[in-house]
Structure formats: C-alpha cells, structure tokens
Amino acid sequence: SAVISQKPSRDICQRGTSLTIQCQVDSQVTMMFWYRQQPGQSLTLIATANQGSEATYESGFVIDKFPISRPNLTFSTLTVSNMSPEDSSIYLCSVVVTYEQYFGPGTRLTVT
Amino acid sequence: KQEVTQIPAALSVPEGENLVLNCSFTDSAIYNLQWFRQDPGKGLTSLLLIQSSQREQTSGRLNASLDKSSGRSTLYIAASQPGDSATYLCAVNNNAGNMLTFGGGTRLMVKP
User: What are A6-64's pLDDT values in tens digits?
Assistant: First the structure.
C-alpha cells in the first residue's frame, strides 16, 4: 500500500493568484497522478508526473495553467496558476503500487 | 475513448438491506477495475481491485464482480450499515500509463 499526504488540505484564494499543492508519498514510486474533482462531479485526470521528465497532460489541461514538478520519487507539486472561480475543486494526487491506485486526502480549493 | 457509467446515481436504503451498485464501461480491453469509497469532502479509499483475469473479489461485507466481455462490474454490499453511507466510485484502468477513467459515482445513504 501507500500513504499519501497533501498540503494544504484546503485554501481560499483570490482570483488571479496561484496556489502550489504538495504531495508526499511514503515510498518511492515511478508515476504520480494529479486529478481534479469539480463540485458534484467525478474525478478527471490532469496529468501524469514521472521523475526526471516533463509531465504528460490530458486533453484540456496545459502546462502554463497547471505546472507540475517531480523532483524525486516521493514528492510532487501541482500549481494552479492565475486562478478563476472555475478552478474551485478538490485536487488529488495518486500513485500506483502493485497495480492498485491510492489517493491522497485531497486539497479543497475555493477561488473567490 | 473509455467511458464509465454508474447506475444508480443515488440510492437510499434502510439499514440491513443488501444492495448492488452497477458499473459499465465501453472498452472491454481493460487491465483492471477498482472500486473506491469517498466520504464528503474527503479523498478516495480503495475498496477492491479486480484484475482483468479475475471474476470477483471479496473484502468483508463487500463483493465485487467483473464481466469483462460485457463491460460490467457490480459491487455488492451485504447487510448495509449507516456507516456505509458515502459515494462509491468505479474506475477502469486501460493500462494507458495506469491512468484511471472514473464513473460518475453512486451516492449511497443507509438510513438507521
């Protein structure tokens, strides 16, 4: 299994600002994933982050808006840039261990 | 493109009932399927993982089945309890870098 922590757990931010979300895993993993869950919706994959290479973004998500860092095998950050109210969501990171996917507790972001 | 559908979207049952949650997917070439539980405002907890070669998995009062050829999975909850109240999410892995495609979820309420 894997234990994942995220910081911050929640934040309220003003339009136009940026927020960086941190994700820490208790074991080394090759791939880390960032998902978004908009209010009342299911999860959508934003990007896949591999250590030592650029993140791979899904359709509808771009690096300028959601830059990702992956400095080592246990840590990643997701930045939500130039925020608007439409970015209000829960952001979750996840990893795969022995075929099973584990999720962090999420970061609840509200943009005013 | 894989699409995952969950029926019903919401379900309310009295305590003690056995219940079935349904999940269907359009592309049967899956690697595995995972059922999650999400409590309000929280992250996801993995309940059961079924590999494509398996027909079912059991954990306590939970039993998940998989019929890959027909693109269906069911989550059976026996003797439901108020503590089972949560949103249940089905997610499919097509082995495209281990990313998951999620269904819309079933919001379950078990009444005392």
Answer: 999 999 999 999 999 999 999 999 889 999 999 888 899 999 998 888 899 999 999 99
Average pLDDT of every residue of chain B: 94
Hey, are the CB atoms on B34 and A92 less than 8 Å from each other? Answer: no
User: Which of B3, B100, B107 to substitute to test the interface with A, most A CBs within 10 Å?
Assistant: B100
Report the Cα B48 to chain-centroid distance in Å: 8
Q: Which of B66, B85, B97 is nearest to A50 (CA)?
A: B97
Contact B98 A44 (CB under 8 A): no
* Strand duo A4-7 + A31-37: pairing: unpaired
CA distance A90 to chain B (A): 8
C-beta of residue B44 within 8 angstroms of C-beta of residue B37 = yes
Q: How far apart are CA B29 and CA A16, in angstroms?
A: 42
Count of beta carbons in the 10 Å neighbourhood of residue B112 = 7
Q: How far is CA B14 from CA A16, A53, A67, in A?
A: 47, 51, 46
Task: Report pLDDT for B72.
Answer: 97
pLDDT of res. A94: 95
